[in-house]
Specification:
The protein has 14 helices and 15 strands. The protein is α/β, with parallel strands linked by helices and about 350 residues long. The protein folds into 2 domains: about 90 residues, Urease, subunit C, domain 1 (Roll); about 240 residues, TIM Barrel (Alpha-Beta Barrel), CATH 3.20.20.140.
Length: about 350
C-alpha cells in the first residue's frame, strides 16, 4: 500500500511532501517526492487512558463530585455498571470503540472494571474492531492475568502491593491513578514503582523530582479534570521532567475524541502543537508498549489520513498546528490498521 500527500514524519512531525510505503503491516519506506493530492498522513492517535464501561451512562451524574461519580465501590458509575446487562455493556463499549476509530484513534489503554467478567466484556466488544486495545484489569489478580496488566484506582482506595507484585512477576503493565483530588496519594502510588501514573493534577516539587529521577511517565486527562472540578494538571512542569501522554478518561463525562483532547490541551496550557501531538501518539504508544505512534520506517503502520483540502483544513499555514487545534472527525479520510484495512 502506498499513501501520498503531506507526511508528518518522525518525532518532530516534520511535514514533507511524499509517500509512505506500507508492507506487511509496517512502514517500509518514507519517500520525499512531488505527489498529487492534499492528504495529510500522520500516526493514528493513542488514547492512553479510557474507562469505556460507562459508555452506557453518558452525561449521567450532573453536578456530582468526583467521589460521588466514580469512587469504588458505590459511586454512581459503579452502581450503573452493576445494574446494566451484559449485552448493554458490550454494545456501549463497542460503539465507543467504533467512534474512537472514526475519530482517528488506532489504540487505547483501558482501565477495565468488573474483574474477569469486565475483561471478557471488552474482549467481546472489541472483536472485529481494528483498534489495538490494551486492557488493564481491575479488582483482582485474576483480571490482571487475563488482560495486559492491572489498572489501580488509587492508593487511597487500598493497598495494591499484592497486585503490584503479581503484575511485576507476570511482566505486565501496572498503572495507578494519583493526585487527582489532592496530593496525599501521590507518594504512596510512586512507592509501588508503577509503570505509569494517571492524572497528577496536584503534583508538587517533591513529586516532580521523583518523576524525573525515576523516569516515571504520566497520563493526563485535562477535559476530565475540568468536568470533575479537581483542577488542572501542571502539564508544562510534567513535560519538562518526564514522558506525558493524553487520555480522555470516562466516557460518562467526555467523548473519547483525541481531537477534542488535543485542541483543549493546546489552547489551555503552555505547550507547543508538536508536544501535544506527541502526547496524543508516540508517548502513549511507548507507555503502553506498542510499536505504533510514529510515521517512521520499521514502525507498525497504524496511520491516520486527513483530507487537507477539507473546508476545515484548506489554507492551513502550519499543518501540525492545524491538526492539533482544529482538525476533527469531518476531516478524517481513513484510519489504517496494520492489516491494511
Amino acid at each position: 500500500m502506498i499513501l501520498e500527500g503531506t507526511v508528518l514524519r518522525g518525532r518532530e512531525f516534520q511535514p514533507i511532501e511524499g509517500r509512505v510505503v506500507v508492507e506487511d503491516g509496517q512502514i517500509a519506506a518514507i519517500e520525499e517526492a512531488d505527489v498529487p493530492g492534499d492528504d495529510i498522513i500522520l500516526p493514528a492517535f493513542v488514547n492512553a487512558h479510557t474507562h469505556l464501561g460507562d459508555s452506557i451512562a453518558k452525561e449521567a451524574g450532573g453536578d456530582l463530585t468526583l467521589e460521588e461519580l466514580v469512587a469504588p465501590p458505590d459511586g454512581l458509575k459503579h452502581r450503573l455498571l452493576r445494574a446494566a446487562s451484559h449485552e448493554e455493556l458490550v454494545t456501549g463499549i463497542r460503539r465507543s470503540l467504533q467512534y474512537m476509530e472514526e475519530t482517528g484513534t488506532g489504540a487505547c489503554m483501558e482501565f477495565r472494571e468488573g474483574g474477569v467478567e469486565g475483561v471478557e466484556i471488552i474482549e467481546e466488544a472489541s472483536d472485529r474492531i481494528d483498534m489495538e486495545t490494551v486492557v488493564l484489569g481491575r479488582e483482582s489478580i485474576a483480571a490482571m492475568e487475563q488482560s495486559d496488566g492491572f489498572g489501580a484506582s488509587g492508593a487511597k482506595d487500598g493497598d495494591f502491593t499484592t497486585e503490584r507484585n503479581a503484575t511485576g512477576r507476570a511482566e505486565k503493565l501496572f498503572g495507578i491513578h494519583a493526585g487527582e483530588v489532592d496530593s496525599g496519594d501521590i507518594n504512596p502510588a510512586m512507592d509501588l514503582d508503577p509503570d505509569f501514573l494517571v492524572h497528577m493534577v496536584h503534583a508538587e516539587d517533591l513529586h516532580f523530582q521523583r518523576l524525573a529521577d525515576n523516569e516515571l511517565p504520566v497520563v493526563v486527562c485535562p477535559r476530565s479534570n475540568i468536568v470533575t472540578d479537581v483542577g488542572q494538571p501542571p502539564v508544562r512542569e510534567l513535560l519538562d521532567r518526564t514522558t506525558v501522554a493524553l487520555g480522555t478518561d470516562n466516557v460518562m463525562t467526555n467523548s473519547p475524541s483525541m481531537f477534542r483532547e488535543m485542541a483543549f490541551t493546546a489552547k489551555l496550557f503552555d505547550v507547543t502543537a508538536t508536544e501535544v501531538l506527541r502526547m496524543a501518539t508516540v508517548n502513549g504508544a511507548e507507555i503502553a508498549g506498542l510499536d505504533c505512534g510514529l510515521v517512521a520506517e520499521g514502525r507498525e503502520a497504524r496511520l491516520l489520513v486527513l483530507d487537507g483540502d477539507s473546508d476545515n483544513l484548506t489554507g492551513a499555514q502550519d499543518i501540525v498546528r492545524a491538526v492539533v487545534r482544529r482538525a476533527g472527525i469531518g476531516d478524517v479520510s481513513h484510519v489504517l490498521a496494520p492489516d491494511g484495512s
